[in-house]
Amino acid sequence: MPKIIKDGQVYEDSWQSLSLSEGDSASAVKVPEGQWIVPLNVWLEQKGTLKSRSDVGVQISIDDDIELLADDYANLPLLAFDFPAFMDGRGFSAAFLIRDRFGFQGELRASGAFIRDQLCYLQRCGFNAFALNEEDLEAAKASLADLQEAYQASADKAPLFRRR
Amino acid sequence: MYIYDQHDHSILQQRVEQFRQQTERYLAGDLAEEAFLPLRLQNGLYVQRLAPMLRVNVPYGMINSRQLRRVARVARDYDKGYVHISTRQNIQFNWPDLADVPAILAELAEVEMHATQSSGNCIRNTTADQFAGIAEDELLDPRPYCEIIRQWSTLHPEFAFLPRKFKIAVNAAKEDRAASQVHDIGLDLYENEAGETGFRVRVGGGLGRTPLIGSVVREFLPEQELLSYLDAVLRVYNQKGRRDNKYKARIKILVKAMGPEAFAELVEAEWERIRDGYTRLTQEEIDRAKSFFTEPSYQSFDSAAIDAAIAEQRAESTAFDKWLTRNVRQHKKADYASVTLSLKPTGVAPGDVTDKQLDIIADLADEYSFGEARTTHEQNIVLGDVEKARLFELWEKVKAAGFATPNIGTLTDIICCPGGDYCSLANAKSIPIADAIQRRFSDMDYLYDLGELDLNISGCMNACAHHHVGHIGILGVDKKGQEFYQVQLGGSAGNDTKLGKVLGPAFDAEDIPLVLEKILNIFVENRIEGEEFLQTYQRIGMAPFKERVYAKDH
User: Fold this and answer.
1) CA B169 to CA B178: how far, in whole Å?
2) Rounded mean pLDDT of chain B?
């Protein structure tokens, strides 16, 4: 089972990702039992039945419109945001909006091409779980604490000038 | 000047420690080159043609004597004993060793200096008028707001991986000396008719490959809402800015493509949502920032006696008279003056200053200017608060230190990037061009007769020397491996910001002084009494210049 950093600790990842194979259609593909992260189009097609499950999360990619989930943020247990390249910073703003505008309370997971040295910023924008592509997650998680004090507001913290 | 408290120190120390560990991982082979690249850039470190270059921020140009001495020490201990003042008012070390950079950053942190976000695709050093707080035409002091912006932009978690770099300038004077119209965001600080303090917001200005003048997206932004509005602008840019082509990735391209109105609508929608959130500035925070920029203990003197004494000194010394005319500026207080130390003597790369000179400037700042100095985007250094009665004695010391070349604002006060001698982005050298011009036009009386002239030389179209907004701009270009120089006329960076137009085909390096001479001759022959170069150009247009410069010799 792959490992993941979540809420500052390293865990075995209990979630699996569903990907569409050739011939699968988003409306017909079966989401098996257990904890599954499904692509956004599968969720949108099968929302009627999937939303009764508390073990289905949604994978969104950088080009997806996060407003498509506006009605779902209150109930989804997990959102995984895929970074296409670590220099592509759109995910930082997306996370902030998912937490701040849509009030998402569940697990917000970063996946894809981000790097260890971004953990601390990602966390401050609202991510709390990291499917980081590194061998030694115990060592990597130290980077979450790189910059503990900060001037600006974070997803869950007032700016320094209100605390000074 | 702003003074760090324990929070500022701890933020900076964490940053220094973070980069020390990243550098160690990189040197040990545990951090890949492409991942280390943006990390080092955001700590000011470029890898240049001959060695790394470290760019240290001088926030809005303010620097104190302790910092100057530390910069001198670092230049001495880790570098070759000189630094370069950049057109973003920053200080660049040209020859540090990569492995030494964490130690250099630690030394600078001790004196409240940092290189955070001095390069990379993030929010850069905020710039302002070098005469902020002391200019006679200033409406309000921009520096408290610049410091608020510095803190907001420093290590902002959401905006560290923007499509491209992002530069903010704040102007608060009648005459814009901050080039605010050619910045990603240009803020004009003013008081509205109701007596409220706020900003006119321009977005989408910039130079580089596609020079554009910023568009006003909001006529008045109340001061308390500064940061929520900046967050909204950056958030829209971070999401919508192009990432497929680095030459089309600046916010100016987005604003132009969408149209300023459509862009402003998106910003306003996001801003409406967040403006009452906790990024809204408190009066307490604005007052706290202002408390660091109160007036020093100015004194009153017998103005008439001082003026009489200066008149006598001027009559006795023509050199002093010239220096006063060109390098000394009226202060908002009648008995004080602002002195610009020229870093443009012939034979020195424009903006370069040695460790010994930095130590001297620190001493002069302590003795004559309340311990503070300012770097300028024209690449000089200003002593802002000098008693008029002591100008003559200061001049003698400045002269001995090599800063008294009375050329401020003239043709030889050239704005010049490091160019191909140092920079790996450059297409052509720029320093030798500046040097050739300074040698050719060394007659001060001729320079004074020419009047106000901004000559800007960039070694490539990234336009670090802002050649588009020089009255005369020179751009180094590369054609099949050979260096050529394109000349532009008619640019201006002030209130009536204009982009220069290309004169015609580019020239060989050795032809530039002669080309310049022909351009200046046309000006001198055509000017009407009292006209500056720019006015003559605007009246007579490009044609006469073009005709003379490209005329066939018979």
Assistant:
1) 6
2) 96
A134 lies within 8 A of chain B by CB: no
The answer to whether residue A121 neighbours chain B at the CB level (below 8 Å) is: yes
* Residue B215 dihedral angles phi and psi, to the nearest 5°: -105, 140
Residue whose tokens read 């009030």: A103
The verdict on a CB contact (< 8 Å) between B22 and A117 is yes
Q: How far is B259 from chain A (nearest CA, A)?
A: 21
Confidence of residue B386 (pLDDT cuts 50, 70, 90): very high
Which residue is it, tokens 């001959």? B50
Name the 3-class secondary structure at B177. Answer: coil
Give the DSSP letter of residue A81. E
* Stretch 53-112 of chain A: residues touching chain B, C-beta under 8 Å: 86-90, 92-94, 96-97, 100-101
Residue A158 above 70 pLDDT? yes
- CB proximity list for B471: less than 8 A, separation 6 or greater: B452, B453, B454, B455, B489, B490, B491, B492, B500, B533, B534, B537
Q: Between B404 and B50, name the one with better pLDDT.
A: B404
B415 three-class SS: strand
Among candidates A90, A150, A162 on the partner chain, residue whose Cβ is nearest the Cβ of B11: A150
**Mind spelling out the 3-state secondary structure of B481-521?**
CEEEEEEEECCECCCCCECCEECCCCECHHHHHHHHHHHHH
User: At residue B374, what is the residue type?
Assistant: R
Mean of pLDDT values over B385-400: 98
The domain locations on chain A are 3-163
Nearest residue of A to residue B162 by CA position? A89
Exposed e or buried b per residue across B19-38, where buried means at least 16 C-beta atoms within 10 angstroms of its C-beta: bbbbbebbeeeebeeebbbb
Query: What are the Cα distances from residue B386, in Å, to B134, B327, B364, B371, B402?
Result: 11, 13, 10, 11, 18
Q: What is the pLDDT of residue B554?
A: 53
Instruction: State CA A156 to chain mean position distance.
Output: 16
Amino acid occupying residue B136: E
For residues B201 and B10, what is the distance between their CA atoms, to the nearest angstrom?
Answer: 32
How far is Cα B186 from Cα B164, in angstroms, rounded to an integer? 17
**Residue range A3-163, CATH number:** 3.20.20.70
User: Is there a contact between B80 and B54 (Cβ–Cβ < 8 Å)?
Assistant: no
ipTM of this complex > 0.95?
A: yes
Phi, psi angle pair for B124, to nearest 5°: -85, -175
Name the closest residue on chain A to residue B235, using Cα atoms: A93
Q: Do A152 and B121 touch (CB under 8 A)?
A: no
Shortest CB distance from B238 goes to which of A86, A89, A161? A89
- How many cross-chain Cβ pairs, A to B, lie less than 8 Å apart? 100
Beta-strand runs (E) in B36-137: 45-47, 52-56, 62-64, 82-85, 91-93, 127-128
pLDDT band at residue B157 under the 50/70/90 scheme: very high
Rounded Cα distance between A92 and A154, Å, is 11
Q: Is A153 on the interface with B (CB under 8 A)?
A: yes
| A11 within 8 A of A31, measured Cβ to Cβ | no
CA separation for the pair B187, B172 (Å, rounded):
8
Can you tell me the mean pLDDT for B492-515? 95
Give the tens place of pLDDT for each residue, B266-308: 999 999 999 999 999 999 999 999 999 999 999 999 999 999 9
- B274/A100 touch (CB, cutoff 8 Å), yes or no: yes
The Cα–Cα gap between A43 and A18 comes to 11
Nearest-by-CA chain A residue for B18: A146
Contact B296, B385 (CB under 8 A): yes
pLDDT in tens, A15-32: 999 999 888 999 999 999
